[in-house]
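Recap from last week: sequence in, structure out.
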Amino acid sequence: MDAPIDIKQPPLIRVEKLSRLYGDTVAVNQVSFDLNKGEVLGFLGPNGAGKSTSMQMITGSLAPTAGQITINGFDLIDDPIKAKSCIGYLPENPPVYRELTVDEYLTYCARLHRLSRTELTPALQEAKEHCGLEEVGHRLIGNLSKGFQQRVGIAQAIIHQPPVVILDEPTVGLDPIQIREIRSLIKSLGQNRSVILSTHILPEVQATCDRVQIIRRGELIYNASIDELNQRGKGNHLTVAFTQPPNQQTLEDVDGVKTVTSIDPQRYQIQFEADDFAMFLVEISVQNQWGLFELIPDNTSLEEIFVELTTAETPADVEENAA
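Predicted structure tokens:
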């Protein structure tokens, strides 16, 4: 029997060589990426990097100077109505009408998306259920907490069941409990849709996203999965402590050790080469009765990686500084 053919589905979003110029100023320069069904993408960048400009172009709010955007197979320039119908968007400030009830507002949004009368009721119920709004449908939006208003904003973004949802800073101003609830909601959205999460809250990316990309000065400088990012954050240093510590030279002679720095009479920082060095050191310690009681990996946080990537000098920077 022939093996089944693995037909890869096309990406829900395809961005190709996207650029935006304001006079001589390049806000976005040749940005390209794909987003597949079920992915939650964290879109990061410092202020002025071109992140908001990119989001505006992807949602169709701003025309690109050059490049192509395809949403669910529809070209955003050639077929804007069909392309935009595939997008749900939550701006940083939710576009809610405080004087309306939740049901009134979501019904209004559903009609804007041209849902028929037969489609409206089940769509409204599903959006409220998904966002935890079943008990507040009759309440005025203006009387809801900030967290529930964010939920209403997300509900309006998914009321027409779009395959792509774009969220801009969805947890700004929320308390820790509300943040956890919204993060859980974002993860659930990514099960059946593509999600782009634009945020400055770096732990939020690690908690909710499958992939991360970082933009700097209008150019995409980093694009990797969360697993790859976490692997990058794993340093090649260990802090170790022993009840019967060996001398520094003995540790330096252990296979795989590059450098050893003494912290105090019982503690050392070890720079190593091999990926499985920690396990190897445990075995050596047991064999020699060193009494290893502390082993702390020196991991690099997402914040440190972000700062490293967004502040590192490029060849263009060097030339500019030399001039």
